[in-house]
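Researcher: If convenient, please comment on what follows.
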Amino acid sequence: MTLPTVGQSSVAVGGPFTGGLCAVPGGGFIDFVPTAEDHTAVLTSADGTTWSVAGALSGPDAAGIGGPLAFDGHVYVALGGEPGGVYYGDQTNGAAWVSTDLRHWTKAPDQVAMAGVLSWNGIAAGPSGFVAIGYEGGGGTLWTSPDGLTWTLLIDDVAFPAEAAEPRAIATTTDGFLVVGRVGNEAAAWTSPDGLRWTLHAPFRGGTGVVLNGLAHGAAGWVSIGSGGPLPAVPPSDYQAPAAGWTSSDGVTWQAGPPSSTLLGLYGDVVAVPGGFVAAGSVGLGVGVFLSTNGLVWTPATGLDLSAANVVMVASDGRHVVVTTTGPAGSGIWVSSGVSP
């Protein structure tokens, strides 16, 4: 099984310390590349191979935009952060930007709901608006917005118990929204019809000590990567967390695949691509990219030079796959048409 390469771009997409690569809902890709503390270039591509500068952001928080990205049919919303804020002193806060054309972006006003946000794990759009997941001072949680400009922090100690919930990935479904991650020491999933009312689904068989990372939907149904579980038989000095593919037909009931020696130590993301799925992320002190046709059996991707990379990102718009790497030697980008047997 290979990741057939259709071109390697020489454009430095995805600058150091940026998580700006995103697939554009409906097709294509966007990357936010900071060029200075107060300036970020907006690059777009229809296929991941040919990139052009579509626009730019300027201002004291311009370098904070980086994704993830969602689109509700009218407005694009990209998330990021700002180093402090008007009301929050030296705190790191979350931030959001909106656009109707991917070129011109407007930053959402500073607001209490985003105070103390440490990182974002994902965003999704539905008929009722946007739902974002991430971390703030009390742990993992969730935010909602009708327009990407005004945000509300969800307080739901039943579905998302404080300091126990860890939502790791989110997607829009035909019935609303789906989130995966863990609660306490158990793998978990959450479903909602509107982003406001949530139902927790846990525990799952084989889910003790497991967190579900990444969320993708393809021919095999829903797929995530379960990191953790029973310790593998390796010396303590070589310890890497077990990992396995997890699948679900409805997002409510999840089944663990067999522990994968290929995925051992993987902690990252998964995307659906033509022919299957691609998972990518950190593996011990390095990075890895892995392929599967069914979400359960995985093999390492070939043709990618990951030896000097310490960050890897993957995005798919449903037609193309883009893998970017960043390391001391610079950045690289590979573009593929999908997974081939």
About this structure: The longest strand covers residues 165-173.
